[in-house]
Amino acid sequence: MAKQDQQRSRKRPPLGGQQRKRNCFFCRDKVDEVDWKNVNQLRRYISEKGKIRSRRITGACRRHQNQVSVAVKRAREMALLPYVAEGREERSDRRDRGDRGDRGDRGDRGDRGDRDRG
Asked: What is the pTM of this model?
């Protein structure tokens, strides 16, 4: 039983060598509240597609990451930040979502709509 407790408490060494410790930007600057009006600061926490980046990527602490996500959502609501990235051209080899390809108009499923409901 004691052996299992030792194995659980051990931390694995990092695989890729030494990793530098990530410090929360807001904790370093002693920021209490993340301001939703500071768009330039919030842009670091959203991806090119407009998604909110995770704590693992940004290095923010839990408290400030929650505040960042609320601030980004408020800034989106007030039209300071986009919900999605602006229209980049999609890859040309992808088909349009409206194109059903070889499946036709999904009529190949049989006559499910014409069943008697008795």
From this structure: 0.58
